[in-house]
UniProtKB/TrEMBL annotation:
GO terms for biological process: methylation. GO terms for molecular function: methyltransferase activity. The keyword Transferase applies. This is 3-demethylubiquinone-9 3-methyltransferase. The keyword Glycosyltransferase does not apply. CDD domains: AdoMet_MTases. Coiled coil: none annotated. InterPro entries: SAM-dependent_MTases_sf. Signal peptide: none annotated. Pfam families: Methyltransf_23. Keywords: Methyltransferase, Transferase, Ubiquinone. Transmembrane segments: none annotated.
Length: 299
């Protein structure tokens, strides 16, 4: 297998990298992957992972919900129920933070197209990009969305969009620095960049350790905290304008984490942990299982 090994921190360039955790791919392969942590800036990443040509097979399962829209299993049905509620909340957040009721929006890693469709129905000019051919086909069939392949990011003119969104996508991107640079080019001068990622400094991440479902190796390559996400923005000419917790994620992630541990009654146990995580994030939103970051360009 062809693999990519990180020998220098992608964020700060330091070679002072120590072992952080060993995590298992509970989802597809049962393989183990090491996480490294930069001692200079604190950025955590999957130390060695399959390259672009190889990693596709780790997504090739009918249970991968963002690509197949499966309702198989109790927890995936819960995911759909919560998503229908969160689509409205995300749309409201985008309009509030962008100070716009309509505009030009690019959704990167749109999956099966639910969010892109939600914004289209609200009158926005929508472009969407997705790597998975099956997910693009689903979006076309169900929403009549013309979702483009990821190569289209190079074709859009600079300053094309008032809003760019990546909902749980950035942790998957192999060319992370190149992506940040392209996002800066594509965003209009007064536009906003909306990035949602898991938070490996969260209450549930600390509770479950190597069994935390949102490490999701090797599909998740980068493991962000509020501090390192702010550093990534600053490195690429962005100012962090706001942070928002995603408290519902803790319930779903905790249920999956209980399943990873092989515990009985993962739904009940996960519900209890999710409730504790919810209260923890109310006291300090930086403990939320996932976070939404709103970036603006430096002027």
């Amino acid at each position: 297998m062809n693999k990519v090994r990180i020998n220098a921190c992608p964020l700060c360039g330091s070679t002072n990298i120590n072992h952080f955790k060993n995590c298992t791919d509970f989802y597809a392969s049962s393989e183990s992957f090491d996480l490294g942590r930069c001692e200079q800036c604190g950025f955590i990443f999957t130390h060695e992972f399959p390259d672009e040509k190889e990693i596709g097979r780790y997504y090739e399962t009918p249970d991968y919900i963002s690509h197949t829209d499966t309702r198989k299993g109790f927890m995936n049905r819960i995911y759909h129920y919560v998503r229908s509620y969160m689509l409205s909340k995300k749309a409201q957040l985008v309009m509030k933070e962008s100070h716009r009721r309509s505009g030009r929006i690019l959704d990167i890693g749109t999956g099966t197209g639910y969010f892109a469709n939600a914004m289209y129905l609200r009158g926005w000019q929508v472009e969407a990009v997705e790597k998975s051919p099956s997910a693009r086909s689903f979006a076309k069939e169900h929403f009549n969305l013309d979702v483009k392949s990821e190569e289209a990011l190079l074709d859009f003119p600079d300053a094309s969009f008032d809003v760019i969104t990546l909902w749980h996508v950035m942790e998957h991107l192999q060319n992370l620095q190149n992506t940040w640079e392209r996002l800066s080019d594509l965003l209009s001068e007064r536009g906003i960049l909306v990035v949602a990622v898991p938070n490996c400094d969260s209450y549930d991440a600390k509770k479950y350790g190597e069994h935390w479902a949102a490490y999701d190796v090797p599909r998740h390559l980068w493991h962000f905290t509020p501090a390192t996400m702010q550093q990534w923005g600053a490195k690429n000419g962005f100012i962090l304008a706001a942070r928002h917790p995603m408290p519902f994620d803790a319930f779903y992630v905790s249920m999956l984490s209980e399943k990873n541990k092989g515990n009985s009654m993962p739904f009940v146990r996960g519900l209890l942990t999710g409730t504790m995580a919810w209260f923890s994030s109310l006291a300090k939103k930086e403990r939320s299982s996932s976070m939404i970051y709103i970036f603006r360009k430096k002027r």
